Amino acid sequence: MTTPQNQAPSDAEASAVVGNEGQGSSDQPAPLVPAVPHGAFLGFDEHGRPEPAVAAGEAGTLLGFLEFQRATFRWRTQGLTDEQLRRTVDGHASTMSLGGMLKHLAFVEFFWFEVTALGRPTTQPWVDVDWDADPDWDWHSADQDGADELRALWEESVAKSQAIVTDLLGDDEAAALARTHPAWGGAQDVSLRWILTHMIKEYARHNGHADLLREQIDGQTGE
């Protein structure tokens, strides 16, 4: 389904896309988005990614770009086998893999939205990890997980993050974006605005890595 660029999808259209999540081809995954939050989207592109609105309010603009980056990452990791997700860059010392990236970004979602913004971390496996023993456990442990398990872990983390942000924004977006939350064990306070901006940066950075890894695996390219 492609929605004209100057026309936002209806709630029914957006819900239909989300409702088909996981059933599309590897080239056109359904986007991980709720039904048009805060006027964030114009429509969906040919890969099923939500196009950020060009004149939304602050919350809508931030959410629009974050959801686009999330959907881009899902497209890059869709349809790959266990072995393909474990593949690293040929001829390079880096141990980064798409599977490690899936687990890392699932943790990043947990850390910034459940730990920091909500302040009530409960989700496994994160709360029982001995991070002192292995600060990069999210990356290192991914090789022990299957492709479906890794994708499900990331998708569940994204869904929880979306629900937390929706609840926090409530009816007063400006106040919610400005409200601060203790981060890094109380070392600093960060606003929800900062968290959303940081997450856009985090995904954009790793999507660049994912571009290289996916093209090496099967030649897939695209913005």
From TrEMBL:
InterPro entries: DinB/YfiT-like, MST-like. It holds the Pfam family MST. It comes from the Bacteria. Residues 1-32 are annotated as: Disordered. This is DinB family protein. It comes from Micrococcus lylae.
